[in-house]
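> Could you send the Sensor-like histidine kinase SenX3 prediction when you get a chance?

Sure thing. Input:
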Amino acid sequence: MASTVLIVDDSLTVRMDLHEAFEEGGFRTVLCANGADALAAFEAEQFDVALFDVLLPDADGVELLRALRAHPGHAGVVALLLSSEAEVSDRLRGLRHGADDYVGKPYDAHAVVARSRELLRRGVEPPAQPSVLVIDDSLTFREELRHLLAGAGYEVLAAASGEEGLRVAAASPPSAIIVDGVLPGIDGATVIRRVRLDATLRNVPCLLLTAADDYATELQILDAGADAFVRKQESLAVVLAKLAAVLRKSTVTPLPPEGPFHGQVKVLLVDPDRGFLDHAADLLREEGYEPVAAPDADDALAMLAVQPAGCVVLAVDGQGDTTAGLELCTRIRSVPGLRDMPVIGLGAGDALLDCLAAGADDYVRRADGPNTLRAHIRAHIRRQQLHEQNRRIRDELVRRELEAAHERAARQVAEARAELVEELEWRNRELEAFSGSVSHDLRSPLQTIISFSELLLEEQTGGEPTDLALRIHRAAQRMNALIDALLQLASANRGQIQRAAVDLTALATDVVDELRQRDPDREVEVTVAPGMRASCDGELVRAVLINLVGNAWKFTGRTASPRIEIGCSPPAFYVRDNGAGFPAERADQLFRPFGRLHDSSDFPGTGIGLTTVQRIVDRHGGRVWAQSEPGRGATFSFTLPDA
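Output:
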């Protein structure tokens, strides 16, 4: 679908001139003669580009721009302002209030179209298929070349004149340009020079077709900036071969245009001599530059603050004050964002050394004429463009090297992680094998020891059992309990957490019932809070409750009226008793393997249970802690957060 442009100008000539240029460029236009029509169009039309004249009979163009930016349906529209160059204040106001660009009158309508296309293309990826622009006034030759290039896999664009070719190239930058040397209007060499001045097209390879075969013509072609030339007397296959060669060599990193060389290069002219200024501005327009006039240093600095320029020309002999221009040059060089911008001094006398000392890059005498000034401007802009391009290429290479370094680091991390995972899996397999060995190979002789010690004790039922037999039996049972605890700890560290909605109240009740069955002679008051639920691995959390409630059962063994409470104080669950307790400052020792705060003869145990509890809670993403005082019981709390 064609893009739509809103043109707001009270001049019928300007409206029709822009209307024809935009229609020729494939745009649909909406024309408004005043501010009221523009405001009505804001509500009735959808458009992609808006052009406002600054001075309207019933409105201010900058105020219309502000209304456009505030309108919810048009906030992202590309906006350009139109006005005369002399009105610097209007240019400043427009750029400060959201204009994408400012076009000074007199203007080139086709340049306005090209700039609008360029602003619309921001952020759009270029096509993958290489395209070739053929500029030739012979329809027969264009079609012959189109057929040849299309057969070779190129997308072909065509133009019958140099001016049309530049417009087509600005609208859709090609991969290469083939241009005839002799054209109606500007010739092929001028087309190439214009291409080399455009930031978007600067790196596009150019082939120039010529009918001449003398050495001087060849030098002129190459001096104009052509990458290669082809004589028309040669076969068209030579065109195809040379095109492939220059495209092969032009594999420069594609970089988006940035800075003051985006679109038409702007040249800021600071000179009170209007006659010289107007003559120089006309010559600069012919060269493809956009002159911007500023009457004094303050306006010049204000302009540079809102819109960069490709070059600054400043008078050092204006109004009888020879120091004003030099001071402006010094001020420009003191601004970080402007210090690399080319500055050319302009004066009547020999002030070259003073200008260079103030920071200027060059000096031109007025007597040498505007043509000399234009040549100096062209040379400095070309040099600055090459410097900018090289800097950006270096920055791009550094960026790509950093990305490559990040990729290498990520790959190394991934490889190291894979090695760690593989090693962890191997260790888990070894641990499982060890657990199996402990469970079977170690238990087998241990069960033999327990069995024979029990036989010895049974044979001595008539008399007192020997101390040695009792020691053997108790040691074997302790070892068996320790193996069970270690296997439980190993099991708590392996496998995936299988979360489900678990009724902790029912789980705690089962654990208490098992304790009562194992120790039916004890009377312990146990309360279990109703409605306790959590998303967790039921088997592992059962081991947590077995250890915590079992410890509470054990450490209340010497309490006159033992009590155990199993409850919930969101977000934590807890097991509380009124047993032996322990010093609060030593609570962290309880969760270490084999960590004990009481003598095993008073409260026997393996010292592994609380370590198992901590591992299980950690694997659920929770934490466990203890509070106690000696002789006043203990409270063990733990959390089981959702996954």
